[in-house]
Structures
1.
Amino acid sequence: MTHTKFILPFDCITEADHGRVGGKCASLGDMTQAGVAVPPGYAVTTDAYEAMLNETGLRAEIEAQLARLNFDDVADQERAAQAIQIRFRSHPLPPAVEAAIRSEYARLGDEMPVAVRSSATAEDLPDASFAGQQDTYLWVTGADAVVEKVRDCWASLFTARAIAYRRRNNLGQIEVLMSVAVQKMVNARAAGVAMTLDPLNGDRTRIVIDASYGLGELVVSGVVTPDNYSVEKVLMEIVDRKISDKHLELLPDPAARTTVEREIEGPRRTAQCLTDVEILAVAQLAKGLERIKGCPQDVEWAIDADLPEGENLLALQARPETVWSQKPVEKPKMSYATGMMGIVGALNNPIGSGG
Amino acid sequence: MDAQTPLFPSAYDVKAPEGAEGWEELYPYYLTFQPNLREKEDAKFWFCDSQHWPNPFKPFDAMTVEYAVRCLGQYNTRHYLVPPANGVDYRIHNGYCYMSPIAVAPEKIEDRIPQFLERAGHYFQNWDSLLDNWHKKVKANIAEMEALSFDKLPEVVPLEWITEGRGVDPHLDLMANYDAAIQLLYKTWQYHFEFLNLGYAAYLDFFGFMKGQFPTIPDQAIAKMVQGVDSDLFRPDDELKKLARLAIELGVTGALKSGTVEEALAAVAQEAKGQLWLDAWEAAQDPWFNFTSGNGFYSTDKYWIEHLDIPMGYLRDYIIRAEAGETIERPTEKLLAERDRITGEYEAMMDEEARAVFRDKLGLARTVFPYVENHNFYIEHWSMCVFWKKMHALSRLLMEEGFWPTEDGMFYLTRQEVRDALFDYGNAWATGGDWIGPSHWPQEIERRRGIIDALSTQPPQPALNNPPEVITEPFTIMLWGITSESIQNWVGGGSVEDGLSGMAASPGAVEGLARVVRSPDQLGEIQEGEILVTPVTAPSWAPVFGKIKATVTDIGGMMSHAAIVCREYGLPAVTGTGNGSSLIKTGQRIRVDGNTGKVTLLD
């Protein structure tokens, strides 16, 4: 084990660590330890972030910028944000933090492409999609690049939108901490999202899957219209499929050490991008996660082109579904008719009669 | 008639095919549409029950419609007073039967509820003990039928009858036995419905509750929670599987593999442990070979016990598969575990209050539903097997006495005419003259055979006249799976461009070559891996389900025999497509999606 207080591999994250690894890493840790196939990786903890603030003089610089910021002036917010970003980049990481990131990266493999993503801490979660909390860098290769992207993730806490958001919601500015996930990159042949209820109506007997070619980012960001499959959760049968025209895919560009968007051509565009077996495997993965977590889930997944069939489906992220799960359950208008009166009721209003 | 064009034709506009003129006289007067009641009859909606009677029936066989549908009604109308529903009116038209349920007037429904609660309630509360008694009654009824004999009248009355001073002759017994057979059949059908409607009602209650909880829940998921895994209906097939295993264990498979049934059994007898196997073969037959590959409603149905080549054929298939290392046994433990899993997962998605209700309704549905599955063996298979066996013996007797030239002659007579023919026989026997039958029946039977054959060339209408705006009649929905939606499918049926739709009766999706089977005699044509396409299946086709990939039927709902067996065998099924067996041709490539109820024609 090389982990220090600055680094926690996913398979070492315990519940006690959740506060300092953020929601995304906590979830990856839970999944890894529950035996779910998750690409390996590690969390750069909030302790690393705090060390960055405290040991480099950055904290004072940020506080100075914020102190003279007129929050009502959008232009001034933008100026302060730029200044803070520059301050972040002007400091190398504290040596112990950088060493920890590098040595853990080396354990993933030599020149292993990774995804570097911000992992917000729990206090910031009421609206997880606020700016700066979703920063993701794909296909990052080499320890230098990883260190740089970790720092970029931290800096993204201080975009103008993020500053404004915290102000609006009465959250502290410098008090908000951030963890970063460094995770082995998936060479996704297809990827997408699965929800363990129907987002259109909250139907919990359904698992609804969005899927397209390549990495899942284009599905999440809405750039492509994905295929949409509906699976009956108990029988695990595909009950609906809408096949879309998928015009783009996001693929790795190993030479450029980044990802590239590519136009999809020919019949592949309008073909079903997952086989039926794969659809059911994704549904099974999502169903398993719902069971582990005890509530409806929103799961990001990918099928890795480099892994053998049967082992190539990976969970990238799972978070609780928030829209329908928070709605109170609708009570039936009348109480249930039971016993003989139930039978009388069924005879008088048989199902299928529209009554 | 009003100006509005009805969705389906009037019976009076559906003419008989050429050569079938005069068909009306083959059936009792009260079974055909009555021109002087046309206005009343045209105002009602009639749907064709080709689920139970897919082919035009001979005059004698019409009795099965009469007794079955009449006895269905008696329990609703006179025994339990089912609040909204009386029985089902029925007519024969061009050889097919059409049904029209009789609703209770809305203002009378309320009054029937207390009586229903008391009467049906008694059955639900005492289900197990009453059902126990039912088994005794049905077995006694079968034993009585089994005891009936139809013997040739002797040259002279036996001397003992003279010396004992009996003062009667054997013709009296012949007549009495015929009348007894008909009465016992009548009783059989009364018993058939004693529990059935109540069983379906409890199922319907559970079904409606589940649809209320989970509006998109597949019907088949609800069925799977209730369906039993050790139904007596599967016993005949299970017996063959056991016999296949035993044959392997005792080393008699070589002897069994070829030749006629007699040759194979003789070869087994030569084997060292052959007798052990033969004993098991004999023991399995009573009662489990009282099993038909038809549905019990036709005199042409073949029963295993009278056609041992049928079970022998299936047995040979099982031996081949078992020797190839396949598991031929039904995975009953797995099925039970699956049933528990499905039940548990839906229950987990309910709130506390609903869960208690769920357990209640599921409990009752599971108590009563085994009857819905099991009765079929005791009535349609066992009882009807014995009945038809006796009637075949009687028809053969009269054939031998010259009344008709073929063994099936009697079935072209109505049940009243058979009585007349029997009297004719005993009459001339007494006078010492010639019986008239042999000069009357052969040409009349030929004429009638021509009519029935002509009727068979024309498929039935799915329905007659206008359907009600919404189908609310519970038995139409429960027993025939007919809903407003399925009627729409019939109307839209016939378009093949985007395939066919029916009920998603058993999950899974496959592609393959179709094999259209219109009668059980064609079952032997089915090749490994084909998709069975048929008007309707009987549960006794189970042995071919090991060979096929999927099933498509014209008729039947979620709880139809085809659906039950397909779920049991894990095969995709789409039921109630209306006309799949006419549109799909043998050898055509089709895709069957048992999850969505769609059948796609691929070429």
2.
Amino acid sequence: MRRLMALAGACLLAAAPLSAKTIEDQVTTFQLDNGMDVVVIEDHRAPAVVHMVWYRAGSADEQPGVSGVAHFLEHLLFKGTEKLAPGEFSETVAANGGTDNAFTSFDYTAYFQRVAADRLGLMMEMEADRMKNLQLDGEDILTERDVIIEERNQRVENDPGSLFREQRMAAQYLNHPYGTPIIGWRHEMVSLDLDDALAYYRQFYSPNNAVLVVAGDVLPDEVLALAQEHYGPIPRNDALPERVRPSEPPQMAERRISFEDPRVAQPYVMRTYLAPERDPGDQRTAAALTLLAEVLGGSQTSVLPQKLQFEEKRAVYAGAFYSGLSLDDTTFGVVNVPAQGVSLEAAEADMDRVIAEFLETGVDEAQLDRIKFQLRAAQVYELDSSNSLARRYGAALTSGLTIDDVHEWPEILQSITPEEIIAAARDVFDRDNAVTGFLRTAEEVTQ
Amino acid sequence: MKVFGSLIAFLMLAAAPLRAEIDITEVTSPGGIDAWLVQEESIPFVALELRFKGGASLDLPGKRGATNLMVGLLEEGAGDLDARAFAEQAESLAASFEFDVGDDAVSISARFLTENRAAALALLRSAITQPRFDQDAIDRVKAQIVSVIRSDAQDPDTIVGREFDRMVFGDHPYGSALEGTEESVAALTRDDLIESHAGALARDRVYVGAAGDITADDLAAMLDTLLGDLPETGAAQPADVDVSTEAGVTVVPFDVPQSVAIFGHEGIARDDPDFFAAYVLNEILGGGGFEARLMEEVREKRGLTYGVYSYLVPKDHAALYLGRVSSANDRIAEAIKVIREEWTKMAENGVTEEELASAKTYLTGAYPLRFDGNGPIANILVGMQMDDLPVDYVNTRNEKVEAITLDDIKRVAARILKPEALRFVVVGQPEGLES
């Protein structure tokens, strides 16, 4: 529900209209008969296009015991179909002057190519082909399993901060699969096989579980015609399961973890609280939490850094973070990296003290006005990158939101009051829902 | 061979090189400052890129880290504004200023709205010409830098690069971390920062690229306002340095499950007539795509790594040809063996006609795609000027790529690939490798 009354206060700053042009003017949406959603974002400044297919399937949709299979399959989609030899997909994109890649998250898996706009049809032809006609051989997939294990080595095993994050997330979610890392637990990754990958593929890869996003120098009607030609003939999967994951029970006890590793040079304390996400037609709480993160820790002039870094000089860095883009419950986080000589216990107390003071004092309205003006300006700046706009729509539509939700979001952010921010803060800062983590060097413990 | 019918038609299309459809205007301010502009009015903001040649390599002996600390303080108070007031002002304007330093340049990336352009520029001007260097800001930023130095000392990716640089460049500024050491940073004084500022940010070394909602006349006037108060000349540029390496492996023991390696030897200068051929050659050997030989042999065929790349590093005072790979401790030796073989093979035999043709279609097709937004365009404009390229380079670049022949590649492969000098530095607990 939109509420515009609160805007009156912010109008002093916002009186000069930033731009008549908005993203809504550039976006057109369709749905194919087989249920595939299509989003077209026009940007005619350069003769280029980004073509993306997003599946409403991520690591949190995996069966128990095969963690990492969504990401493994993402790699295997480059290993050939009846028509394309292994590696030929990327070779063809490159031979047409384009680049391609893919990514996997908790809630989605996406494939994209950036090419000259006149190559769009070819990209669709190949992407539609691998939606259904993947052909894998046992050898190829063993080599690729080695690759994803090296990827895990690189991203996680070699970095204590990433290992710490895995442990915190596992403690945060008692029952929901967000507690399992996207790349997978190593002991399960090493035995992933062809059947695991194909089971996931057959269950989730179909047009009625996909969103096509095309952004760049294209006209909506052209895109629709090409989409109908290439994706239209693929039959829908009527056996597509409803997207319901195991949900969290009431969390009744704070979890505290201490991760020690000799490779940690800069200890810090981080606490995350289970927090509501953006829901279709119901984004106000998420908007208030988005602004809360900005007010508390979004910039140099926000509450935590001002107090701890600038005034008291007890922190090297302090901040807050929240992302409402998630299918299920997300987290709100605060972090404090203490100055030399300040213990992690003291750093935790500092962080809590500043937040408690903030809840008493309330939101600084001048600061909130600055944040809201920056958010309005962001709507101008973001028009410069059709690639990141394409990502925004793809991520939103695979995280349970609608196009209307995406378009209403900026105005909802502008309409949030200081009282709503404090109310959202009081709700979210519930220690029973929280994981407090210390990351420190092993030596520190033995002292 | 399994291909789509339509593929052939598309490949024929690709034979005519695409051109980047951008129109660059050369601008000179009344005060004599040059800039390149791409005017694009559809979105009401401007992206502005400034580069000052010199960068961290201008650090004086015993003052390592001075340029880095100085640049870190540009947004921590300027003119009448202390750090907090400066940040509040930037936020109120929704302008973004990023200050960064590399071995060869200080870079300033700015983005500001048309509706408050004058105010945003006044604020940026104060940061560039009137930084305050308040003592409390110096202390705060020093603490942040020390935290970075300590973290880097525990990060295998950083350790490996540092060790390679130290081996190759020794006492030249390129041979040490631009952040300095805990000791050198602690010893830096406010006077050092003032001296560094005067030496690094001068008009004789500034390059400007702009893209977005601004006219050539407005940009010209803006340049004098923004930079006119800077000194005419700055510190002397550092000397060139020779690169010499010996084939072999240096192991830096570090307790991580995956070994991280950097490899390479002397490279080729940006203004060398063979640079283009070398660039195409590298695309085939170790460029970013899955088609590159290193990626094919090390990752696709053997699954030894998530990523392996090689890249030319033409710095202002030295040129390197480098690569990177990471593999589990018990597999890194094999990865290194394969890389050595590929390096030698290409040095001896060059590339195939088919490889050259695909590299050309990729490079010429991908080039126009780089110009995708005001930010990227401003960046390209300033980079071209620093490389001393003419304005019409954007239109001739693809023709230069197309002109490279198989013989060019063979000759340049024999010239720049030096298996006898290919040095590996490995950080980790590699099995079967010793220094």
